[in-house]
Amino acid sequence: MDPVEQLAALVRGRPPCVVLTGAGISTESGIPDFRSRSGIWADVDPFEVASLSAFRRDPERVWEFYRWRLSVLGDAEPNEGHLALAELERRGVVEAVVTQNIDLLHARAGSRNVVEVHGSIRTSSCRRCRAAQGLERVRELLAASAGAPRCPRCGAVLKPDVVFFEEPLPEAAIGEAYSLARRAGLLLVVGSSLEVYPVAEVPAVTRRAGGDVAIVNRGATAQDGLATLTIDAGAGETLRRLAELV
Ligand code: NAD
Q1: Mutate to test the pocket of ligand 1, among 36, 104, 223 (most ligand atoms within 8 A of CB)
Q2: pTM for this structure?
Q3: What is the mean pLDDT of each run of 10 residues along the chain (246 residues)?
């Protein structure tokens, strides 16, 4: 049996299937991942642009990075990996997608049960009065002036509603992710180095509750030792074939 056939057998034999995705599922949409050689952190120090202390110290610098990120994300479309997961959910094969990605591509591909454990670019909020602005409004504010966008209500700097280093994860989302991981017969990890906690703990949660773990990732991950099956291959083609076989 080739590895994708083995994966299809696991998906069929060990329901329900919960999927955990990371930046690797979106690279085929033209969005760089974080830790690969060509990843975002190869050129940029994450603590300078994606930590809460950096945001407090120099929000203009953080928004310079986010201005670039939003322009990359704005051009991106869901790829065959996102589309295959949405189709598998419609067919009742996948129960939910837990994602570390902030790019909204699962929802745009048609996945309905998506748990965003690191927030998303859907909104940015005012640090002072808490008013939230939608992505389109933030794009307008960025286009209208250089530097960090400011709250239209009170004038304080907005912050993307994305989890920064030194920030806790949204409690409801991580709670839902852990409960899905406990219920999963199979946790299918796609495109994540599984190095960033607490999400990196999710496969162990599934294993402790008696479920299986399968990992589709280019290169090794930090949790390969927990997996029943690892497939070192591209996410898009692997998931498209999986959807054909299940
Ligand atoms: P990662 O870059 O650590 O890992 C991505 C993995 O996907 C790599 O192992 C890579 O080899 C693999 N990959 C790349 N393209 C692939 C493809 N086409 N098919 C299969 N595999 C592929 O990304 P991660 O695991 O998602 O990182 C964890 C999280 O850290 C991120 O999702 C992000 O949310 C978070 N984070 C974000 C910020 C921020 O910007 N605010 C800061 C810190 C951490």
Answers
A1: 36
A2: 0.95
A3: 97 98 97 85 85 96 95 93 98 98 98 98 97 97 95 97 95 98 98 95 98 98 98 98 98
